[in-house]
């Protein structure tokens, strides 16, 4: 089995503010075997001199949509699986080159894509997926316009599903839909619990799914030892979701201080997605986003940065997510630039490593540098604890990227 020793490294372990110098890390196969403050003795091993640069866990993006190749979700259904897959390959490859060794596809990703990645057919980060998003009729993933009278494009849960989601109304349909996605290998279940920007017929302030429906979905996930994540833009939708057992909130752009305190008290997580909002506000119209969606977008955008500060003050545990759609995915690392207006570099590094691993229920395996963890590592040319902008350059300042013990990139010789 191949052994690699990364030596003479400054190590950020995913949590600690202190980053000791002169460290050595032994990787065997796809696992970290030893982390030592002394040189590691081993025969027939490849040694890589990190030269005092920062070795840290690979980054984790907790909110991607691998197949979302157009701002109009309806267009994607007509493009069909081969086109969506080609887009996903390009997008995920870019994520890996930017230092993201793990992603969570939180709507649309599926078993065939996950299997292709696991079998080495697709060059991509480690891949967790939520399968199809669960939406009620008229909810955020019901992309029919008000002019359409019937379920089309596979939106009916009794027939077929569209590329991104499934409609489920009532407890029985919600249970069946959740069980189906879990059967197909989903690592968690995503629901939409408030209105959204990309859907045509639901106002942002609208709460979605009844309490009994949400609790039923949560219970199905508890039985599978996993969790529910919910799309929530408003404070009300966030609070009720967490109250009903949802473990992770996506976006929470309009959260208030009282709700943030409640989320923190319950130990739930939030994954803000700033770069998606900013990129769409800047270029959405020229990329074809309809005017009515732009109005909804601006309403969320105006509150988004204040929401970050509110959650930081309340002590909410935040993951790192981007939610970039269509041709915006090359801006993935810009999320660091936007968040550093509110968070310290240490807080940001934790969000993008160890907190993401917690949400994924992968503590000790991902988001850390310690024995028995998976060997997903990056080497930064500089100190990101002093300048987190080093991570905001699409991988330009990364001298080494390792995923599962394999060297994806190596400029260290």
Automatic annotation (TrEMBL):
Name the keywords, alphabetized.
Hydrolase
User: Which InterPro entries does the entry mention?
Assistant: Amidohydro-rel, Metal-dep_hydrolase_composite, Metal_Hydrolase, Metallo-dep_Hydrolase, OTAase-like
Kindly give the Pfam families that the UniProt entry links to this protein. Amidohydro_1 (PF01979)
GO MF assignments:
hydrolase activity, acting on carbon-nitrogen (but not peptide) bonds
Which stretches make up the Amidohydrolase-related domain? 54-395
Name the Gene3D superfamilies for this protein.
Metal-dependent hydrolases, Urease, subunit C, domain 1
Q: Which SUPFAM superfamilies match?
A: Composite domain of metallo-dependent hydrolases (SSF51338), Metallo-dependent hydrolases (SSF51556)
What is the official name of this protein in its record? Amidohydrolase family protein
